[in-house]
Design goal:
Elements lengths: L1 H31 L3 E6 L5 H14 L4 E6 L4 H13 L4 E4 L7 H11 L3 E4 L5 H4 L5 E5 L2 H18 L6 E8 L5 H16 L3 E9 L4 H15 L5 E4 L2 H13 L10 E3 L5 H9 L5 E3 L2 H16 L6 H4 L8 E3 L3 E3 L9
Parallel strand pairs: 1-2, 1-3, 3-4, 4-5, 5-11, 6-7, 6-8, 8-9
Antiparallel strand pairs: 10-12
Length: about 350
Amino acid sequence: MKLYLKLFTITLLLGIFISGCTNSKNSLNDSSQRPIIGMVVGTFDDTWRSCVRNEVYKDAEGKAQVDIWSGDDSQQTENQKIDSLIRKKVKALVINLVEPAEAGIIIEKAKKANIPVIFFNVQPSSEDLQKWDKAYYVGAKAEQSGSMQGQILVKYFKSHPPKDGVIDYVMLKGPAEHQDARLRTQYSIKGIDDAGLKASKLADDIAQWDRTKGQEKMAGFLASQGDRIDCVIANNDNMALGAIDALKTKGYFQNGKYMLVVGVDATNPALKALKDGSLLGTVLNDYTNQGKAIFNLAYALAQGKNIDQSNVGYPITDGKYIWIDYKIITKENINDAK
């Protein structure tokens, strides 16, 4: 009887083991039919970029495997992740640069390995993109978002003129090397000037796209400029929300005390601030369509297809770029951001 039980147990275990291997093998066979797309995001600690990678995950379901890593806001770390994905012989690379100047080196590596590469959010120079016919960029034109921030403020100040006829503003900026930060800073003020209004900068500082840093910088502005400030212009929503946090500690947004704040991205936390009235406006940086464009392009490239609008779903400009338009979002049209 004991011998019978032992034999039964061994047979049962072997059956489980064989069944497990068979299922695993089938799973591998299934997944092996799908191309592997490697993606490195500068940092996962960013609301908008997290939305983009989640969209890529969603669009890849049932079509491709996606292997997504964080560069931990370090170009050295990002390079290590890229090298690892190249060694794995992924079929396409998607890169959100930490440092724009690194694009040329990454393109050379990808070209040597014959792996198409798509950059997003941080735009390489046109010279770098021309180094290889399988290098692309997906993004939005930052000057458009800056102009739209200016338009939001122009609409308000035309019906609520500042006391001395001059809009005194403070600016919260992204990293100095990031083209979106530079262009949003420049074009937000240009949008005000082009409308015939006058703007004067009281202070500005770099808050690295970060809410906590935005709060800290805004607290400093309030300490030095106080009630002289007419509005806060932030290069993204995280920093705008940080400014609102600092303003709330000083009694703003209650008992009639108010400060105009504008951002960019139309993230969910920003939309919540729009609803409660603490954020005047933002600009939709369409992560849904950018994520879809990134995946569609990577998937077509991974399959070795010739790239055009028919297999990507978006117009290709100059054979290199997919541009997704921004859109002004205020409390009145908040549903357009959903």
